[in-house]
Fold these 3 entries.
Entry 1:
Amino acid sequence: MATSSSSLRLFCSLPNLLVFSLNLLLLLISTASFIPLLLLRTPPSSFGWALLAVSSTTLFSSLLSFFHLTHSNLYFIVHLSLLLISSIGQTLSFFSLFLRPGPCLTFLGSSKSNREVRLLVMIEEGAIVGMFVLSSVALVLECFVQSWRVKEYEEEEEEVADAKKRNRRMGKFRVESVVDVEAQEEEERMKIKREEGVKTGHYRIAKF
């Protein structure tokens, strides 16, 4: 059991490292995605605020992943929910910018030149695609790592339960052994007394 547990731990060390690296990259890209939106217009338009909300959700989910390393189920559920929400927002944002670029440029309401606006929008699209890919891979890996953690926890609980059962059996066996030894000693004492009584009786008869 211990050998399989250690092998499983070594096997999952790489996914753990990948999850940490992916969330770190996700943190950097989501932070960088604020720059094009703020350069387009400050303060942003309503559509710009919607894009900022997607980036903020992604940023917050990547930050929460570092607290999720404490193996807390609550953090995992919240982080998983934020990853799903941010992935949906990233998908909608990309398709809006990619399929309807004209109306989106109008909604962004930037006063910059058309060339600068298109360049900044292309950068934002690239950031959104990067966030979506990293979020999807991190989501799959974190579900895998969480299932491994649950399995490892169940194995540890099973080992503890088996150890307690063994201790109870050993304790019961020791008590029974002590009782048997005491019974044998008592039987030997009674046997000695009976023999002494028989000898005393024979001696009295012979004397008589």
Entry 2:
Amino acid sequence: MEIYIYIITFVLFFAKIGFPVFLLFRLFFIVKPLLINLYAEEKFTYYIGINKSRLIILCSLFLLSCFLGIVFGNEISKNSDIYNQTFYTFLLVLIQFILLYLFEIKTPVHILKILNEYILNPKEIFKERKVVFEESKAISSIQNGVSFKDVINLSNGDIIKQIDSREFELIIEKHKDVFQDQFSIDNLYKLCNGIKIKEGSIAIKIDNKRNSKQNIVEILASLFNIQKNWNSQIKDRSNTKIIDFLNMFIIINQKEKILHSNDFTRLFEKLD
């Protein structure tokens, strides 16, 4: 019976303290870039993956977890009936798990994705994660008086759309798993807003099942003005230039696959 009491006490402590502390650490690392940018720029700006509404939701879930852990947890501790204490302890754990799930689906990077990246490359866990602030999309690399965005548009028919962070999130949300890491997502956001990035810096993983090449084609068609510059009837030079531009920055399955004109032609034929 003593061991049973110890187990229940440990589980209750975990539900009261463990969950809120974990959410606090997660919230801290989400808010930290906002505070650093606020101090450096003297201006509050959200970064891609977080916005005002999402931040309010995350803070509310954290506070609710704390409230339930403290108030509900203390009431359970005072209950002398061991069976009632057990039932309500596991009920509290269940509620805390639900709050944790609701919290994680609103974070810029899911904890499982962070753990997966750590397993693949443990050293990456110590590196500072770079975030892209909304206003940075207005800053492009200027060379010889011409911006990177202007060069791309002149060569490929004004394919740069200028997408705000919220619209970008909505577009990629359904097929977010095709991206190898958050760095690739950030670079795609930069590229679709005319900001120069390194060649091959958008890594894509496809398996021809849930994460297929068609998924990334649909994302790219939504982020760039490709369809209006596309000639589906012939292998037009403009089509080839657009594909070459995308393949320059996008690496699929470590260069085992590339984008082809037919990938977009099939999509646009379905849309017509």
Entry 3:
Amino acid sequence: MTVSAGVTIARTLVASVTALRVAKVRAPAADNPAMASDKHLPLKRGTSRYDEAIALENSVRIIRKARGKHNPEDFAEGTPEWHAVIESFLIDLLWASGNGLHDNDD
């Protein structure tokens, strides 16, 4: 895995979480003054947030491999297999980050 692949996956994770949150909330509940703040931690190499994201991603890769699941780099990017695996990988990544999206704990 290259660093750029990790950053791409982290950005995809952020976009996926944002999309899920938007889809699950109603307009009145979405008014949160804290979300209007531009004071987000940067996701740049060398920051603690970046290091945590890479550690989480690597942990998910190792767990998936131990469970016999494929990781995104096992397939050529853009193929149907890659799309299926990346979706599964992101669900596992969200689950590992505390967003319990799994129907069961297998």
